[in-house]
Amino acid sequence: MLDGFIRVGAASPRLRVADVDYNISEIIDCAKKASDELCSLLVFPELSITGYTCGDLFHQKALLDKAKKGMYKLAKETSDLNIIIVAGLPLEVCGKLYNCACVIYKGDIIGIVPKTNIPNYNEFYEMRHFTPYEDLGLVYVDEEICFGPSVFNCAGFGFAVEICEDLWVPYSPSVDYAAHGAKIICNLSCSDEIIGKASFRRDLVKMQSAKLMSAYIYADAGIGESTQDLVFAGHDVIAENGQILAESNKFADGINDNVIIYADVDLERLDADRKRTNTFVSDVTGDDYINSLTFTAYLPDITPSRKISKTPFVPENDEDLAERCEDILNMQAAGLLTRLKAINCSKAVIGLSGGLDSTLALIVTIHAFDKLGLDRKGIITVNMPGFGTTARTKNNAMSLASEYGCTLREISISESVMQHFKDIGHDPEVRDITYENSQARERTQILMDIANQEGGIVIGTGDMSELALGWATYNGDHMSMYGVNCSIPKTLVRYLVSYEAKRTKAVSESLSGALADIVDTPVSPELLPPTEDGKISQKTEEQVGPYELHDFFLYYMIRFGFTPSKIYRMALVAFDGKYDKATIYKWEEVFIKRFFAQQFKRSCIPDGPKVGTVCLSPRGDWRMPTDAKRELWLEDLASVRSDK
Fold first, then answer.
1. Domains of the chain
2. Which residues pair with 6 in a beta bridge?
3. How many whole angstroms separate alpha carbon 517 and alpha carbon 514?
4. Of 195, 234, 384, 619, which sees the most CB atoms within 10 A?
C-alpha cells in the first residue's frame, strides 16, 4: 500500500429478486472485474444476495437457508481473488432475523455486521421482517464467525460497515466506528429514488465523511429490485473527508452490465487530519459492544488514478473559483478594515510596482476603503523605479492608481541607492545580493516614512509562497504594518487578479486591460537592469523554480505533513506531461532547502489575515524552530532517486 493509497469500489450489480444463485454469480463477476482493477475493498448494496424487495419472502426458510449457503459460496468462489468483499444478506441469529452485511476475504468470512436502525415509515416497513440490533454480547455464527458491530483491522487501516438507514439517523453507528479507528465506512444501501433525494443523499454521504474525517463508500441498489411500488437508481457515491471522489450516474445501464465505480482513497491524508484535530475523539471507552477483528491481507501498491490538481490552492470549477475569489477578497478586506478601524486610520500606503502581489494588495485595500466609506485618495500608491524597472510595469502601476482613483506618487530610488553604495563602499557594477537588497530596503524605508508623514499604515504586498521560500529581503519587502497577502500563495494571487480583471471589465476596459497585462507579466522583483530592448531580465521562476511546483510542495507538506517522497510521486501524477522527473526532483530539493533555511524570516512577519487551511504565521498555524535540520526530509526525497 504505497503512500497510503488504496483503491475502493461500490457496485450495483444486476440482480433478480429471491434468485440467490443468479445474484451470487453477478456479485462474483463484479468482484473479478474489481480485482483486475487492483481494487482492494468492494461494497455491494443492502441485501444484495437476495434482493431488498423480497417482502414477506424473508419469512421463508427456503430463502434464508439459500442466502446463507450463498454467503459461503461467495466466499469459496472468490478465494483466489485479492479483494475484500462486503455483501448483504438476511440472517437468522439467536432466533431473530437480521439485515446483515458479511465481510469476506480470500475464502474467509471475517465477520457479520447487523443493521442497527430499522426504518418503518413511509414506504419502508422493515420492522415487519427484521429485528433492530441491540447488544447481544459476544455472539458467533456457526461457532466461528463473529456477529455484531465491528471494526475490521487490515493491513494497517481499519474499516467498518453500516447499513442504509444507519446513515440517516441522528447518531450513526459510524460515529463510534470512526472513534475506534475506522478510516473507511462502508454503507450497503437500498435507497429508493424520489425527486430531490439524490442531492440530499449525496450531501449526506459527503458531510458524514467530513464529520468523521473518513472515506465513505455508499453502494446503492439498482436494476433488478422490484418496481412494484418503488424505483431504484443505483446511486453509488464514494467520498473522502467532505470531497466526492466518485459517483455513478443515476439509472445507469445496469440491464446489460453491472455498474462499478472506483476511487483511490488517501489514508495518510485522513490520518493527518485526525492527528491534527485534537477534538476528534478516539478510543471511546464504555462501548465494548464494538468488536475489533484483525486479519491479514495484501493490498497492492497503486499509482493513484484520482485527480491530483496541479494547483491545490485553487478550485478547478469556474463557478467555485469565482465564489472562492470573492470570499478571499472579502476576508482580506475584512482583516484590513478591522485594523484601520481599530487604530482610527484613514490612510494606507502601498508600494505599487505593477506586479501581481502589489496589485492584489491594492485591490484588497480598495475593497476595505469602499466598505468603510473612505475616500480612495487616502490610498497612497508609491511607484519607486530603480535599476530594473521596465516601462511595462511602471505604466501598469500608473494606470491602476489612476483608474482606481488613488493618490499616486513617483519616487525614484536610483540616486539614493547609489549614495548608499558610496556610503557602504559597494561597487555598483557588482550586482550581487547587496546590490539587490539595498533597493528593496530603500523602498521599504520610503514607504514607512511616507506612512509616518501621512498618518497611515504600510500595506504589505508579499505572498505566502515568497514566505515559504524566503524570497523576500529581510526588513525590506519582508516588512510592513499589515500584510494582506500573507496567506495567499502565488498561484492563487494570479487567479485573484484575473478575477478582478473580469469583474471590472464592464466598468472600465482600460482598468481590466491593465490587470490582465499584469497577470501576463513575468514574476520579477526587477532589481537587475532590464534587457537591451527594455524587457524584464530577472525572472523569479527561472531562479527559484516554478511557483506552481513550490505551491504544490507547500500545500502537501504543511497541510498534511506528507513525506517528500510521497509528494514527489504525487507531483509526477499531477504534472504528467508538463515537468519530467528530474525537474520535479530538482525543485522539490530546492524547496526543502529554502524552506528550512528561511524560517527566521517567517518568525517575525507582520500581522495579516489567515484565509485558507495553510498559513505560515508564527502566531497561528506554523511554529517551527529557526535552527531545525533539514537532512531527514532530504534523505526521504533522495529515496526516490532511482525513479529519476
1. 2-295 (3.60.110.10), 318-643 (3.40.50.620)
2. 265
3. 5
4. 234
- What's the distance, CA 498 to chain centroid? 23
- 46 given a catalytic annotation: yes
- 329 DSSP β-pair partners: none
Residue 577 CA, chain-centre distance (Å), reads 22
CB 462 within 8 A of CB 483: yes
Q: How many CB atoms lie within 10 A of CB 339?
A: 20
Question: In this predicted model, what pLDDT tens digit does every residue of 506-564 receive, in sequence order?
Answer: 889 999 999 999 999 888 777 788 887 778 777 778 889 999 999 999 999 999 999 99
Question: Which amino acid is it at 579?
Answer: Y
Q: Which listed residue (164, 190, 345, 615) is catalytic?
A: 164
- Residue 253 pLDDT level (bands cut at 50, 70, 90): low
**Each residue's pLDDT tens digit, 122-147:** 888 888 999 999 988 889 999 999 99
What number of residues does the chain have?
644
* Nearest C-alpha neighbor of 361 from the set 458, 485, 468, 450: 485
The grid coordinates of residue 243 equal: 470531497
Active site residue 76: no
Q: Rounded distance, CA 38 to CA 26, Å?
A: 19
Q: DSSP string covering 340-391, please?
A: HHHTT---EEEE--SSHHHHHHHHHHHHHHHHHT--GGGEEEEE---TT--H
Q: Which of 115, 206, 394, 601 is catalytic?
A: 115
Tens of pLDDT, residues 613-628: 999 999 988 999 999 9
The alpha carbon torsion through 39, 40, 45, 50 (nearest 10 deg) reads 100
Provide the Cα torsion 625, 627, 633, 634; round to 10°.
160
Closest CA to 641 of 590, 585, 588: 585
Distance CA(603)–CA(191), nearest Å, equals: 53
